[in-house]
DNA sequence: ATACCACTCAACACCATGTTGGGTGGTAAA
DNA sequence: TTTACCACCCAACATGGTGTTGAGTGGTAT
């Protein structure tokens, strides 16, 4: 079914996304116009609207792709192991996979979570992790049962803490390896325990 | 020095900000035009530009005021106690004051950190806490010295975790009291320790 | 040969923006 | 009381991005 038209279509979309990303590195989202994008992509402005409703749609689709990729990435490499390990309290494997995926998509993550973060991707990421992992962990863990703190607060606390690490990593231009980051994550937890 | 002109000026600015906030509750920032604001404020559109450069300037000034208020609020109520207590590891007083201030300015915080968070206020808040408190604590605490984790990561982790609690609180329409929130914060730390 | 496809091009109406020049009524100082 | 000043109003303007449309081009499949 992959006709030559589908290929053209795909190529143009990639061209648009690449140009868009390039612009987002230079200036904030609000300052990027469809004109800018199509000028850099060297295509007609009307062509843009054949693929996307507007620049918000473009951004949203790129976010979707990124999150879907993360989901697939996690499910493919370790089908159920991750969740099982996570439920046992072992977050190491889980987190290293996340850090790896981020490393593979640095540019986009840096732009979406970076200084000009003027689109609520932070919130989307929070919801993603919340729906996919943390809440399951928080709900299933037997030793969470006797905790008086509401689950939603604990969940939001944990995810944000993790995202805090990720954001700092991105700010540091990925100076550490994914393994080092996963290690750091564990160490912080241990550190708090011994406090 | 508070002439009648200053009062008029101030009143109009408050009017603009109030109308702006009202609109932000209805729709995302990008969809709010200067026309919308001045229509609701029942003033001439040109008048808006006598007070603000554009809607981004307006937003930024409101953020500034909010952060300056938080700073003053913290400094006024307990001049140095907060930092001293915090440096001793007692974050209770510190955090309850923060929760109280947020409660006093729910509407704005909810809009700035809420679902339509399309302006990097999350990042600004992170920097604020980072510069004012956490980094001082992290740097001064003697028992942080033998920790191998880089300070910036620990700082980002801690602040984000705290903001995670705050954001969940806002999402829950401030169902808990500031004291309960501060308590919850402490409990989570203790819980991690016992994990 | 015909229909289809992605894309180009030019033109369009629409709307928000930021600015300007002139005007109003109330305030303060001469 | 006159004069200058002030915040604000009003109308008009050029600018520029937006989304859409109709006509046209050159390859592709049938």
From TrEMBL, chains A, B:
It holds the Pfam family TetR_N. Keywords: DNA-binding, Repressor. Residues 10-70 form the HTH tetR-type domain. The keyword Repressor applies. The keyword DNA-binding applies. InterPro entries: Homeodomain-like_sf, HTH-type_Tx_Regulator, HTH_TetR, TetR_C_Firmicutes. Residues 33-52 bind DNA. This is TetR/AcrR family transcriptional regulator. It comes from Mesobacillus maritimus.
